[in-house]
């Protein structure tokens, strides 16, 4: 029964036309020189949907819900199918793309510019095959990840895409200088079931090669053919091979017997440009020619002698399709061209299975352990299972044994090292590029602030593949290669003299991650060890990690370690070690990372205020709130309206103070290009609050930001937003909601504001109900301060570290004025009639020693200045305070704790009783400006006012504390010089010398 050819239909204007099938075989897709994309519902469709996607279209590839289209814009544009909404760019070339091919693991595209680019579907890696000396004409991929491409220089190249190795080159094919002038495409095609055969047309014959030995297996020839062949293609099951000629002839051979299938003659003598089989394996193929026409060939079956009943061939093909892959028609041909030792080993293995009684049969073992499989049809039928049940049981059993890979280590803010030009680091400080080409192997460092540091260009002798960059430190690391051990090399920009230091990893340890801040450098090795160094090169600690390390990040004295805390399933189970280094003391807190379902970690780092932040491949950015020990979502990549489905975000900086994320939008790729230099953009934090269109919800969003994020003027913003929400609730007659808001915030500073506003709008009942809350909130705040003081030595150490306390309290010299007793020679004679007291045995008491810390068992009154400041427990002292002990700082609250929101006592400011603020401010302006260089004049006055009030209160309390122990003694007479002074200040002067 001969095959049938449909008349060729006009589809596009004259020129190169390509055709392909929808992956389910229901529709035919054609593209042509007119730039149209047509979807044919069968060759008889009189009105196919048409979309113009470019000026010229050269190729199309459809799979799943996507279709790739190669246009004259020198790109491979992805579209959603069948809506044809743009879905990113897969490839970019310097000339138009001529052909594409795909298997389960790779997508390849060839161009007129003599280059082929291959994209890995699994990890997104892209590599390039170049220097081909001619345009790429046609290509195909195999199940064994081989790529065959015919080039315009008359050669056919075959690569292994997994190893990027060139396996074979075949010459003596037709040559052409431009793709637009090509007639003989010499299109290669792999046998689809196993991929062990490669066919390509050459002249009037089709040649079959063995992909193992590259020997010629067979040649298919049509003796009636008058012109040369241009294209060829295997059928979906590999049982037929079709070829098209220069004059429009279609030749089809039965691959098993080599018999030529008879069929209709061509209607038009136009060269065949593309030939593709229907994926349904229904004996149908579609073809296109150089005149812009499309047609089909149907009823492609070999005559079976007497068995010509209707549907008999279809049944035979269905049975053939259901046969096991081991019963392939090409097995004899393939084995005939194997090497003798390979063929003998296979035969011996099969013979031993039958002869050896101790041989373990794989299928028998599977049936014993996992139950009957699909091959045990008889056993399954006896047990009463039908085909559907059998498939369900097998799929459920296989699902139990399925494993999921864990995420590999990566460097945040970097691009893959497989690229010739890649980013080792691209963060808010600068850019570290690595150039690894045949002509150059170097590292280039570019700082965003060129006034602070000059750029650096280094020869990459050690082949560094990782780097960390901070304001003062550049850290680079190399793996074990060619017998050379792994090393860490650092350059300290702020050091004097020798700025570079290096360490070699012991044994066979290999560095897998590195990070640097202005104070520490941290290295992670494949032995699950963390090696911590100072910025100047001193080895600090070696820390063991309880799982495979994923990534590192550093900020000041803090660093993060992301590691796998459990085996991966559908999700990655990653935890964070948040470590703080103060002197030679470490503290660590461990938290789980909130990744989106099915995603991986893409970036981890710190915000500009030191809060840990994590970004995953699903586009969700979360920030860690240390006080609450919770993660807050602050941005989703889907909120960016200009982002396409195939675009990705590359995070550079998270600014918590300004509520912005600095990033690079990567069009059609996961990583930014090195040339040209990408332009960063800033997007505002977008918390996933509900209904942000209304005024109330916007104010609620601002309130949450001010309460949980370290924004500029957070306290002021919180008060303003709370008052606005309170006013809005009153305006909407929701007094209970207004009162609930005040009760929830529970701030004693907010109560006077809302009471004043409620009275102003004549909500007297609401104002009266809010008044009793003020003493309650004040009492709560005092209790909270006491609880904080009690738990500071145990639980609040890490919280204070992560809130980035001012470490100047540790390193800065204490300039607090010392209150010393009078010299012995200047002391007035003591009254012999004065009663002796227990306090006299301790000497003259100071304000610090008389403020509730008396007795032999009292603790050191200064221990909170260091213990609370650095977050560690201070050891208790069994001795009583000495005479010369320092007074408590103004930054220490009434309960002994330190509040970083209160002004710190620099010691330089002195307040004389009775002195006004302005003279005091002029006297201490320089000290205040040195302590707060970022403050403007108005802020400096506010800070000075707070310090002035604190010192005035301290002076008053010091005078009261230094009063005589025996309150019943007689009062002394006033001198003339003491007349303008108060009693408290005079008593303070009686026991101490005035400072200054």
Automatic annotation (TrEMBL):
<dbReference type="Pfam" id="PF12341">
    <property type="entry name" value="Mcl1_mid"/>
</dbReference>
<feature type="region of interest" description="Disordered">
    <location>
        <begin position="816"/>
        <end position="917"/>
    </location>
</feature>
<dbReference type="InterPro" id="IPR015943">
    <property type="entry name" value="WD40/YVTN_repeat-like_dom_sf"/>
</dbReference>
<feature type="repeat" description="WD">
    <location>
        <begin position="9"/>
        <end position="41"/>
    </location>
</feature>
<dbReference type="Pfam" id="PF20946">
    <property type="entry name" value="Ctf4_C"/>
</dbReference>
<keyword id="KW-0677">Repeat</keyword>
<feature type="domain" description="WDHD1/CFT4 helical bundle">
    <location>
        <begin position="711"/>
        <end position="771"/>
    </location>
</feature>
<protein>
    <recommendedName>
        <fullName>Minichromosome loss protein Mcl1 middle region domain-containing protein</fullName>
    </recommendedName>
</protein>
<keyword id="KW-0853">WD repeat</keyword>
<keyword id="KW-0539">Nucleus</keyword>
<dbReference type="InterPro" id="IPR036322">
    <property type="entry name" value="WD40_repeat_dom_sf"/>
</dbReference>
<feature type="compositionally biased region" description="Low complexity">
    <location>
        <begin position="873"/>
        <end position="891"/>
    </location>
</feature>
<feature type="domain" description="WDHD1 first WD40">
    <location>
        <begin position="9"/>
        <end position="296"/>
    </location>
</feature>
<feature type="compositionally biased region" description="Polar residues">
    <location>
        <begin position="843"/>
        <end position="861"/>
    </location>
</feature>
<feature type="compositionally biased region" description="Low complexity">
    <location>
        <begin position="955"/>
        <end position="968"/>
    </location>
</feature>
<dbReference type="GO" id="GO:0000278">
    <property type="term" value="P:mitotic cell cycle"/>
</dbReference>
<dbReference type="InterPro" id="IPR022100">
    <property type="entry name" value="WDHD1/CFT4_beta-prop_2nd"/>
</dbReference>
<dbReference type="GO" id="GO:0006261">
    <property type="term" value="P:DNA-templated DNA replication"/>
</dbReference>
<feature type="region of interest" description="Disordered">
    <location>
        <begin position="950"/>
        <end position="981"/>
    </location>
</feature>
<dbReference type="GO" id="GO:0006281">
    <property type="term" value="P:DNA repair"/>
</dbReference>
<dbReference type="InterPro" id="IPR057646">
    <property type="entry name" value="WD40_WDHD1_1st"/>
</dbReference>
<dbReference type="InterPro" id="IPR048591">
    <property type="entry name" value="WDHD1/CFT4_hel"/>
</dbReference>
<dbReference type="InterPro" id="IPR001680">
    <property type="entry name" value="WD40_rpt"/>
</dbReference>
<dbReference type="GO" id="GO:0003682">
    <property type="term" value="F:chromatin binding"/>
</dbReference>
<dbReference type="GO" id="GO:0043596">
    <property type="term" value="C:nuclear replication fork"/>
</dbReference>
<feature type="repeat" description="WD">
    <location>
        <begin position="234"/>
        <end position="263"/>
    </location>
</feature>
<feature type="domain" description="WDHD1/CFT4 second beta-propeller">
    <location>
        <begin position="409"/>
        <end position="689"/>
    </location>
</feature>
<dbReference type="Pfam" id="PF24817">
    <property type="entry name" value="WD40_WDHD1_1st"/>
</dbReference>
<feature type="region of interest" description="Disordered">
    <location>
        <begin position="362"/>
        <end position="390"/>
    </location>
</feature>
């Amino acid at each position: 029964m001969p095959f049938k050819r449909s008349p060729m239909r006009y589809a596009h204007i004259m020129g190169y036309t390509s055709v392909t099938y929808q992956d389910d075989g229901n529709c035919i897709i054609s593209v042509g020189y007119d730039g149209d994309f047509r979807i044919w519902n069968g060759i008889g469709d009189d009105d196919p949907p048409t979309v113009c996607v470019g000026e010229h279209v050269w190729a199309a590839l459809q799979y799943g819900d996507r279709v790739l289209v190669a246009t004259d814009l020198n790109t491979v544009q992805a579209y959603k199918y069948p809506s044809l909404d743009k879905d990113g760019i897969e490839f970019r070339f310097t000339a138009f793309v001529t052909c594409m091919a795909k298997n389960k693991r790779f997508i390849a595209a060839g161009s007129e510019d003599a280059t082929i680019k291959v994209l890995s579907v699994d990890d997104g890696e892209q590599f390039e095959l170049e220097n081909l000396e001619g345009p790429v004409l046609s290509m195909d991929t195999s199940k064994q990840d081989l790529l065959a491409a015919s080039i315009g220089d008359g050669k056919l190249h075959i690569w292994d895409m997994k190893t990027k190795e060139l396996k074979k080159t075949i010459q003596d094919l037709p040559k052409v200088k431009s793709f637009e002038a090509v007639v003989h495409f010499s299109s290669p095609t792999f046998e689809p079931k196993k991929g062990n055969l490669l066919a390509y047309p050459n002249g009037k014959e089709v040649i079959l090669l063995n992909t193992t030995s590259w020997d010629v297996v067979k040649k298919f020839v049509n003796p009636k053919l008058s012109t040369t062949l241009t294209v060829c293609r295997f059928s979906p099951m590999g049982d037929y091979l079709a070829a098209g000629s220069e004059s429009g002839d279609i030749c089809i051979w039965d691959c098993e017997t080599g018999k030529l299938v008879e069929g209709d003659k061509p209607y038009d003598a136009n060269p065949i440009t593309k030939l593709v089989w229907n994926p349904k394996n229904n004996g149908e193929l579609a073809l296109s020619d150089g005149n812009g026409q499309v047609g089909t060939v149907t009823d492609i079956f070999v005559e079976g002698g007497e068995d010509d009943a209707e549907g008999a061939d279809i049944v035979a093909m269905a049975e053939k399709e259901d046969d096991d892959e081991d019963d392939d028609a090409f097995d004899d041909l393939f084995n005939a061209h194997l090497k003798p030792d390979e063929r003998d080993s296979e035969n011996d293995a099969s013979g031993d299975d039958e002869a050896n009684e101790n041989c373990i049969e794989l299928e028998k073992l599977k049936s014993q352990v996992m139950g009957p499989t699909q091959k045990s049809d008889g056993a399954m039928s006896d047990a009463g299972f039908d085909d559907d049940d059998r498939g369900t049981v097998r799929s459920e059993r296989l699902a139990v044994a399925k494993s999921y890979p864990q995420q590999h280590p990566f460097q945040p803010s970097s691009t893959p090292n497989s690229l010739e030009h890649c980013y080792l680091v691209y963060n808010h400080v600068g850019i570290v590029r690595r150039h690894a080409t045949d002509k150059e192997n170097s590292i280039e460092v570019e700082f965003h602030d060129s006034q602070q540091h000059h750029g650096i260009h280094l020869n990459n002798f050690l082949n560094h593949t990782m780097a960390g960059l901070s304001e003062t430190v550049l850290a680079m690391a190399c793996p074990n290669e060619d017998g050379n051990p792994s090393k860490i090399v650092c350059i300290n920009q702020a050091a004097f003299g020798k700025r570079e230091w290096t360490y070699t990893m012991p044994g066979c340890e290999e560095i897998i991650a590195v990070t640097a801040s202005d104070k520490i450098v941290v290295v992670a090795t494949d032995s699950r060890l963390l090696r911590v160094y100072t910025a100047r090169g001193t080895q600090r600690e070696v820390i063991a990690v309880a799982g495979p390390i994923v990534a590192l990040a550093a900020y000041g004295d803090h660093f993060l370690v992301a590691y796998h805390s459990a085996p991966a399933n559908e999700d990655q189970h990653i935890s964070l070690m948040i470590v703080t280094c103060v002197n030679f003391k470490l503290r660590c807190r461990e938290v789980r990372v909130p990744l989106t379902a099915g995603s991986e970690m893409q970036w981890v780092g710190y915000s500009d205020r030191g809060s840990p932040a994590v970004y995953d491949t699903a586009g969700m950015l979360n920030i860690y709130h240390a006080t609450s020990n919770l993660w807050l979502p602050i941005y989703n990549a889907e909120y960016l309206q200009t982002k396409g489905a195939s675009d990705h975000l590359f995070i550079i900086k998270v600014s918590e103070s300004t509520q912005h994320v600095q990033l690079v939008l990567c069009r059609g790729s996961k990583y930014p290009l090195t040339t040209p230099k990408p332009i960063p953009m800033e997007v505002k934090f977008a918390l996933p609050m509900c209904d942000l269109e209304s005024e109330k919800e916007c104010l609620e969003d601002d309130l949450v930001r001010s309460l949980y994020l370290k924004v500029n003027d957070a306290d002021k913003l919180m008060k303003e937003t709370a008052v606005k929400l309170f006013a809005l609730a009153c305006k909407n007659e929701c007094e209970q909601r207004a009162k609930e808001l005040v009760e929830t915030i529970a701030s004693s500073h907010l109560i006077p504001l809302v009471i004043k506003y409620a009275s102003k709008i004549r909500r007297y009942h609401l104002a009266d109900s809010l008044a009793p809350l003020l003493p309650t909130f004040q009492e709560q705040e005092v209790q909270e301060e006491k609880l904080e003081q009690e738990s500071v030595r145990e639980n609040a150490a890490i919280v204070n570290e992560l809130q980035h306390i001012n470490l100047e309290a540790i390193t800065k010299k204490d300039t607090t004025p010392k209150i010393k007793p009078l010299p012995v020679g200047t002391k007035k004679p003591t009254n012999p009639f004065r009663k002796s007291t227990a306090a006299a045995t301790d000497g003259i008491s100071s304000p610090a020693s008389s403020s509730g810390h008396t007795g032999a068992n009292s603790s050191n009154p200064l221990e909170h200045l260091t213990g609370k400041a650095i977050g560690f427990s201070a050891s208790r002292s069994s001795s009583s305070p000495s005479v010369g002990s320092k007074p408590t700082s103004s930054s220490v609250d009434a309960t002994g704790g330190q509040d970083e929101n209160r002004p710190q006592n620099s010691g330089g400011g002195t307040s004389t009783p009775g002195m006004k603020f302005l003279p005091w401010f002029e006297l201490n302006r320089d000290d205040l400006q040195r302590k707060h260089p970022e403050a403007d004049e108005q802020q400096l006055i506010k800070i000075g006012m707070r310090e002035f009030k604190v010192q005035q209160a301290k002076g008053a309390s010091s005078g009261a504390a230094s009063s005589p122990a025996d309150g019943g003694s007689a009062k002394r007479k006033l001198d003339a010089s003491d007349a303008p002074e108060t009693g408290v200040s005079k008593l303070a002067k009686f026991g101490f010398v005035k400072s200054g």
